[in-house]
Design goal:
The chain is mainly alpha-helical and about 240 residues long. The protein has two domains: about 110 residues, no CATH class; about 110 residues, Arc Repressor Mutant, subunit A. Strands 1-2 form a two-stranded antiparallel ribbon. Helix 7 crosses helix 8 and helix 11 runs antiparallel to helix 12. The longest helix is centred in the middle third of the chain and has 20 residues.
Length: about 240
């Protein structure tokens, strides 16, 4: 198994740090399998190779594994970032290579923590309020109903009117702050509405590119109004 790991590492070392062309997630996921599969193996006995490939197939068939790679794809689909994630996975494998899923989880936690820390730096209080409102809407949205700017704006203005009247709450201010979050890709337009292309941005479905708990942690550790800290600790406010 150690030899197989070296073969995969060797294959990864030949990958260039360039973005994939315009590809779908399914194509990206197939590339993950290709990198781990070991094409045209030499000096690897058939039994060991079969065991490794079976582990890879079982690993990639898991829903939680697919979800993590989907998050990586949405954040950055460059070959270089994929290479880093796969290398971190390989470095965490046990001798029998039976812990691919655990290794992926550990690698993703490490990468996403660093990514989110960088992504969430330098936000204004109003931008953090928008993120908190969006996070709460995503958490309570168990029916899959779309969340868009107009819905978030109503939630944000309700909170500001009740608890933080010193923060600008005109729709125009909230819209500009929301646009900055879109530019930084902390909030993104959902793929399903991009393809339709017949709605104003304000009415297109959106989603956070960070976990709600990361937003709560950011607010907890930031110098923001007490009411916002309380809101981040509650299921609603």
């Amino acid at each position: 198994m150690d030899f197989l790991e070296k073969r995969v590492r060797s294959r990864l070392s030949q990958i260039q740090f360039t973005p994939f062309a315009s590809i779908t997630f399914d194509q990206y996921y197939e590339a993950v399998k290709s990198f781990l599969w070991i094409q045209n193996p030499e000096n690897v006995d058939k039994k060991t190779l079969a065991k490794w490939r079976k582990s890879v197939e079982h690993f990639l068939a898991k829903d939680e594994v697919r979800k993590i790679f989907k998050k990586q794809f949405e954040i950055n689909n460059t070959v270089g970032d994929l290479k880093l994630l796969l290398q971190l996975i390989l470095s965490s494998l046990d001798d029998c290579c039976n812990n691919l899923s655990d290794a992926l989880t550990s690698a993703w936690d490490l990468i996403s923590e660093k990514h989110n820390y960088t992504l969430l730096q330098g936000l204004s209080v109003l931008e953090m309020v928008i993120l908190m409102g969006t996070a709460m809407l995503e958490e309570i949205n168990t029916n899959g109903d779309p969340v868009n700017f107009e819905i978030v704006c109503r939630r944000v203005r309700l909170f500001l009117n009740k608890h933080c009247q010193t923060i600008p709450r005109d729709r125009s201010y909230i819209w500009k702050a929301f646009q900055r979050l879109l530019e930084r890709k902390i909030i993104v337009i959902a793929e399903s509405t991009i393809s339709k292309g017949n709605k104003p941005v304000q009415f297109q479905s959106i989603r956070l590119q960070v976990e709600p708990n990361d937003v709560r942690k950011l607010i907890k550790e930031s110098s923001v109004p007490t009411a916002l800290k309380h809101w981040a600790q509650c299921s609603d406010f």
